[in-house]
Amino acid sequence: MAAQIDKVISELRDMVLSGALQPGERVVELQFSARLGVSRTPLRIALTELEKEGLLERLPSRGFRVRAFTVDEIGDAVEVRGVLEGMAARLLAERGASAEVLEQLSQAVQEGRALLAPARRDPKATVDARAWGQINRRFHEILCEAAGNRALLSALEHNNKTPLAGPAALTLPSTPSQLETPFVLRAQSDHEDLLRAITRREAARAENLMREHAYRSRENKRVLLESLRGGVAGLALPAD
Q: Which of 47, 118, 207, 214 suits 153 as a labelling partner, its CA being 20 to 30 A distant?
């Protein structure tokens, strides 16, 4: 069931990001259950997940519709996320992370390194988008929770309601191409650098690394969205 849900989420996300589903278009369970060849239960879960990502909004009546958003709106929200998560990294480094938190962050880094090992050996290799998304979300969530600032978490939750602004929101298509691989490899390197800075209690460096990490994420999402919509396929900017 979990694999089927992930597949439906990816397929629906691709439809929204590519423009196959237009802003304001309704997504009705019965119609899309037949269209995707799945039962209504995994579809319902997938729709709720995409609502959390900000790509869909629930209608007062039954069903969902595609939210309208611009690349600039996404970029603004990712930039704000970088400031907030940079603060979280600084607070965690200043206070000193517990052994448990460092172990959790280290485990996420190790899992990312193992997942991306084939791509490091072969530039033509592609990345398992769903697996990377889960690792990325866990790393960011552990770090921000461990900072211990409730107001910061509340601000992040509000900001990340913008479509594709949060670390859980992927612009990787369900069938990735070589365009995304260097982005993800650089994101993994950023995680490793952040872990070292937090472990060494280098607060200013941790904050700067996280803000730069968010900057790359903003630029990469712009490139990937344009590529998915057929605007600049093959163009690459500095990796996330």
A: 47
What is the pTM (predicted TM-score) of this model? 0.78
**Got the DSSP string for 148-212?**
--HHHHHHHHHHTTSTT-STT---S-SS--TTTHHHHHHHHHHHHHHHHHHHTT-HHHHHHHHHH
> CA 158, CA 85: separation in Å to the nearest integer?
13
Place of tokens 């998915």: 228
- Residues 237, 240: Cα–Cα separation, whole Å: 9
**Distant-in-sequence, close-in-space partners of 117: CB < 8 Å, separation ≥ 6:** none
Q: Do 170 and 180 form a contact (C-beta atoms < 8 A)?
A: no
Which of 22-31, 67-76, 229-238 comes out lowest in average pLDDT? 229-238
What residue type is 230 in one-letter code?
A: G
Residue with tokens 């579809």: 43
